[in-house]
Design brief:
Blueprint (H helix, E strand, L loop, with lengths): L1 E5 L6 H12 L3 E3 H11 L2 H11 L6 H14 L7 E4 L5 H13 L6 E6 L2 H9 L1 E4 L5 E3 L18 E2 L6 H24 L3 E5 L4 H15 L1
Parallel strand pairs: 1-3, 1-4, 2-3, 4-8
Antiparallel strand pairs: 5-6, 5-7
Helix pairs in contact: 2-3, 6-7
Bound molecules: zinc ion.
Length: 217
């Protein structure tokens, strides 16, 4: 199954991706992870990415597309399918991505849009805490670390992202929706969009998604 995951920050993409990975064995391809990996491995593209990131600029679309191309043509796990997360965020990106994936003969089957409302996203993100060391995610109310400020998994420091505050979340959501609306329409026109109510808890979201998948088989 070849999927694109869309949804504003706090819609639960990460949680859903790890569920689908366990359930269906589909690799989770996050463009954020790919960028970090390239920088860490200090590849030539990674060095280029680093320059953009350090100057506070956006990484150009063609660089991200190139990285996705490298990943998709080198990682044989992708033959089973993929869940692409973090890209596309604009209509131009969606079209470029389609062109690439068609070339690679791995076109997108379905696009899952996790539709979460602002109040729910605010509740989730303001309570979110992240381990600085291993990236484990906690929530002050729903899933607090056993010991305050310390990661259950690795003992690392658990912190709050500075942009997980109400005002910034509102702005991030506005920007996301503005950019993504045409992307959603683009996939809707192709008949590939599946919209899921992501205000519900993660288990309900997972169940309704499995129903969608089963209905399609
Ligand atoms: Zn940790």
């Amino acid at each position: 199954m070849r999927l694109v995951l869309l949804g504003p920050p706090g819609a639960g993409k990460g949680t859903l991706a790890s569920f689908l990975n366990k359930e269906l064995g589909i690799p989770h391809v996050s463009t954020g992870d790919i960028l970090r990996e390239e920088m860490k491995n200090n590849t030539s593209l990674g060095q280029e990415v680093k320059q953009y990131v350090e100057s506070g600029g956006l990484v150009p679309d063609e660089v991200v597309i190139k990285l996705i191309e490298n990943k998709f043509s080198s990682d044989c796990a992708i033959d089973k399918g993929y869940m692409l997360d973090g890209f596309p965020r604009t209509e131009v990106q969606a079209k470029d991505l389609d062109a690439l994936l068609n070339d690679l003969q791995k076109p997108v089957d379905q696009v899952i849009y996790l539709d979460a409302s602002l109040p729910v996203v605010i509740k989730r993100l303001t309570g979110r805490r992240i381990c600085r060391n291993c990236g484990a995610i906690f929530h002050m109310k729903n899933n607090p670390p056993k010991e305050e400020g310390i990661c259950n998994e690795c003992g690392g420091e658990v912190y709050q992202r500075p942009d997980d505050n109400e005002e910034t979340i509102q702005t991030r959501m506005d920007v996301y929706l503005d950019n993504t609306k045409p992307v959603i329409e683009y996939y809707e026109d192709q008949g590939k969009l599946k919209k899921v109510d992501a205000d519900r808890d993660s288990q309900e979201v997972q169940e309704s998604l499995m129903k969608i998948f089963n209905g399609d088989r």
